[in-house]
Design goal:
By secondary structure, the protein is an alpha+beta fold. The protein contains six helices and five strands, in the order E-H-H-H-E-E-E-H-E-H-H. The chain has one domain (2-153): Gcn5-related N-acetyltransferase (GNAT) (Aminopeptidase), CATH 3.40.630.30. Strand 4, helix 4 (111-125) and strand 5 form a beta-alpha-beta unit.
């Protein structure tokens, strides 16, 4: 397995293909990336690729943007099979691990650990004092990996869903009132409403 830094914009297209397959969980379908989300990811990466020259110029001019999209990819059989994406939080010494993913056929072989260890080392080289990440509650293999690397649980989150909700009725406006859209240039009305 080859482990190398993410190479943008070259890796954008293969990452898009890889990420959808990576985040499929047959044993927990509610965790899986849905078809519409796949389209969103694909659109976002295509847009990112189109504006890459502008992003690159911005990174040259603004040092805080240089750590916007870093990380590592694992290459095996000539394709990306794992990825770790990290990013500095603004101009602070805090970093975020945004994505850790390995294609299902390549899991349980140390690829996520190797990528994350390499990315943690890169963050430290760049002055990281704190790092955080999020993980789906119940993704025990990922939680064990993060805890074995020294991460500690500090928060919890619960998602709720409501099927076919009954929406509240819209109250009637008093006589003489109406709702209308403001023009963007109508600053006087906006100030008067404050």
């Amino acid at each position: 397995m080859e482990l190398r830094p993410i190479d943008l914009p070259r890796d954008l297209t293969p990452l898009g293909d890889m990420l959808y397959d990576t985040f499929q969980y047959p044993e927990n379908p509610q965790w899986s990336v849905q078809t519409d989300e796949k389209e969103d990811i694909s659109h976002m990466l295509k847009s990112f690729r189109r504006i890459w020259p502008l992003i690159h110029i911005a990174q040259v001019l603004a040092p805080s943007l240089r750590d916007m999209f870093r990380g590592h990819v694992a290459i095996e059989d000539g394709k990306i099979v794992g990825v770790t994406i990290i990013q500095r939080h603004g101009t602070t010494n805090a970093w975020v691990v945004g994505t850790v993913g390995v294609l299902p056929g390549y899991r349980r072989r140390g690829i996520a650990r190797a990528g994350l260890e390499k990315s943690l080392a890169l963050m430290r080289e760049h002055g990281a004092e704190k790092t955080w990440l999020g993980v789906i509650n119940g993704n025990t293999p990922a939680q064990r990996l993060y805890e074995s690397l020294g991460f500690e649980v500090y928060d919890g989150m619960t998602d709720y869903s409501l099927g076919d909700p009954t929406l509240p009725s819209v109250p009637r406006l008093p006589a003489g009132f109406s709702i209308s859209r403001l023009a963007r240039s109508d600053w006087r009305t906006r100030i008067a409403l404050e």
